[in-house]
Amino acid sequence: MSSSAIQRHPFHLVDPSPWPIFSSLCALTTTTGAVLWMHGYENGGFVFSLGFAGILYAMIVWWRDVVKEATYEGHHTHAVQTGLRWGMILFIVSEIMFFFAFFWAFFHSSVSPAIDIGGIWPPKGIEVLSPWEVPLLNTLILLLSGASVTWAHHGILCGEKKQIVYSLIVTVILAAIFTGLQGLEYVEAPFSISDGVYGCTFFLATGFHGFHVLIGTIFLTVCLFRQLAGHFTPSHHFGFEAAAWYWHFVDVVWLFLFVSIYWWGGQ
């Protein structure tokens, strides 16, 4: 090997990959199909489903390649892991801004209710959910799942493989229970997303949080299988670390949702 071919830096120059352009085309297909579907065009739902399936496939194979580069090819050096950590931090910051918009809409309507909704909050005719039933139980479940994720992180740092597996299984089970209870709450809610500004802000904020819980559950499930495959070590476990950060973010957002929308907004 010539001296010019020797890598003299700790950064990872990725190989050419088909997945970025493939993902972009699938995203375009998905959005186009969604618009056609919502406007009643024939086969719009099929186009949407085709694009969405392509996105799911791209996510699987693209992350498979990233795991291979990190675990088996050794490309994720300390410098690369530092960059990935900053990337995850910025992603979570963008998610904070995303939820900030929903909280802004909620407080804009609830702090100074418009005449159109009777000048009161909750609006007249809306029967709100009690915060001390399913919402409180879900709060305890998410807090417990945050503790079990921390337990798993401690297990990785200490090299306790069984503890990691047990704690991740507990976390995934708690996440599934949370999702099931939230779905039950939606089914039994005395109002819908069509019931004015209250229903809209409630279901958008809690619904998108539920979607993030689902993504986090998949994230942690993948970490569980990676742990069973022996991918994580005390010095090389950014994949789990990113999942743990994401899950703690989901926990914190739920606490704000519980206090503001369920408790304060339901008074």
From TrEMBL:
Transmembrane segments: 21-39, 45-63, 84-107, 134-152, 164-184, 196-225, 245-265
Function per UniProt: Component of the cytochrome c oxidase, the last enzyme in the mitochondrial electron transport chain which drives oxidative phosphorylation. The respiratory chain contains 3 multisubunit complexes succinate dehydrogenase (complex II, CII), ubiquinol-cytochrome c oxidoreductase (cytochrome b-c1 complex, complex III, CIII) and cytochrome c oxidase (complex IV, CIV), that cooperate to transfer electrons derived from NADH and succinate to molecular oxygen, creating an electrochemical gradient over the inner membrane that drives transmembrane transport and the ATP synthase.
Chief place of localization: membrane
Domain Heme-copper oxidase subunit III family profile: 7-266
GO cellular component terms given for this protein: mitochondrion; organelle envelope; organelle membrane; respiratory chain complex IV
Gene Ontology molecular-function annotations: cytochrome-c oxidase activity
Alphabetized PANTHER family for the sequence: CYTOCHROME C OXIDASE SUBUNIT 3, CYTOCHROME C OXIDASE SUBUNIT III
Membrane association type: Multi-pass membrane protein
Entry-linked InterPro entries: Cyt_c/ubiquinol_Oxase_su3, Cyt_c_oxase_su3_dom, Cyt_c_oxidase-like_su3, Cyt_c_oxidase_su3-like_sf, Cyt_c_oxidase_su3_a-hlx
This protein's name: Cytochrome c oxidase subunit 3
Quaternary structure (record): Component of the cytochrome c oxidase (complex IV, CIV), a multisubunit enzyme composed of a catalytic core of 3 subunits and several supernumerary subunits. The complex exists as a monomer or a dimer and forms supercomplexes (SCs) in the inner mitochondrial membrane with ubiquinol-cytochrome c oxidoreductase (cytochrome b-c1 complex, complex III, CIII).
PROSITE patterns: COX3
Keywords, comma-separated and alphabetical: Membrane, Mitochondrion, Translocase, Transmembrane, Transmembrane helix
Location(s) in or outside the cell: Membrane
Gene3D superfamilies assigned to the protein according to its UniProt record, in alphabetical order: 1.10.287.70, Cytochrome c oxidase, subunit III, four-helix bundle
